[in-house]
Amino acid sequence: MASDKPTILFVDDEERIVRSLRMMFRADYNVKVFTNGFEALEFLKENRVQAVISDQRMPSITGVELLREVRNISPNTMRLLLTGYSDLEAIVGSINEGEIFRYISKPWNADEIRETVAKAVEIAQSLEQVALPANRDLAGAGEHLLIIDDDPDTASAIKQVVEEELDQPHVVEWAVSVDSVFEILERKEIAVVISEMHLGERDITPLIKTLKRYNPNVVTMVLTSFRDASALVALINEGQVHRFLPKPVRRKLVAKSIRDAVERYRALKAAPQLAKRHQVEEIKKPADSGLSNRIIGFMRRLRTA
């Protein structure tokens, strides 16, 4: 019976799109489709839904706005953004507001979208009986934050934010090279990583992605002036970055983002099962395979030490 199947919602203002998606998924899921985002939210308020997959560009409400509301209404529902546009603002919003599980490009690959939706539903179902930790249970102090950036002004600004804007003390570590990242990781448990995407001319996004893959409790934020849509999509799908922040440092924004990241880290420590929500894809196109292999080797040694 349809009611025995997991429920997934597709939201797109194009009728032909949702009709096609319904046909593709109806054998395995209780599929609900909407061309109006507000109607989808009303359905969500009254029904248990494992995953919502939304288009970005819709006339009544954008996909990012919709998924932000989904997060508020039903935090356990997995959120995916489906769009045919490399819209940088939407990508950033999907990270910072929607906290999405995956970014899926149109036109989609049928096997890949089936696999992605199946993984999202599997995670949602596995966590339905897991209670979210109450804020009062998330006490902690002195978490270690790691800044990865070779710009001393940025590191100084973040340290100042931590000292002056946050309610609780934290220890701030600063790495200016991949070697110094390894050295810090060997001796400290890092809660939050605040990283550039480049050290000098070197792309270090493989480092950001691999840290999350081998240490799912770490919460990563990217702070950069680099604005490449495809790189950010890869950081969502392959790195599950928690926030994307622009340079130069904006004190209030960075302070709020660090608070949110520390709260996320504490929740993951209190209920490790929640890390399933942030599973990453395999890195598809490592920009620097040598760096990727080196990081993987280091993280494996660290886990078995």
What does it look like?
This protein has two domains: 2-126, Rossmann fold (3-Layer(aba) Sandwich); 136-304, Response regulator (Rossmann fold). The radius of gyration is 20 Å and the shape is globular. The strands form three sheets. The protein has a five-stranded parallel beta sheet with strand order 2-1-3-4-5, with helices on both faces. Strands 7-6-8-11-12 form a five-stranded parallel beta sheet, sandwiched between helices. The chain has helices spanning 15-25, 37-46, 63-73, 88-96, 110-126, 152-165, 178-187, 205-214, 229-239, 251-270, 289-304, and strands at 7-11, 30-34, 51-55, 78-83, 102-105, 144-148, 171-175, 190-195, 198-199, 202-203, 219-224, 243-246. The mean pLDDT is 91. The protein is 46% helix and 18% strand. It starts with 6 loop residues before the first strand and ends with a helix. The chain is an alpha/beta fold.
How do the helices and strands line up, and which of them pair or pack?
Elements: E1 7-11, H1 15-25, E2 30-34, H2 37-46, E3 51-55, H3 63-73, E4 78-83, H4 88-96, E5 102-105, H5 110-126, E6 144-148, H6 152-165, E7 171-175, H7 178-187, E8 190-195, E9 198-199, E10 202-203, H8 205-214, E11 219-224, H9 229-239, E12 243-246, H10 251-270, H11 289-304
Parallel strand pairs: 1-2, 1-3, 3-4, 4-5, 6-7, 6-8, 8-11, 11-12
Antiparallel strand pairs: 9-10
Helix pairs in contact: 2-3, 3-4, 4-9, 6-10, 8-9, 8-11
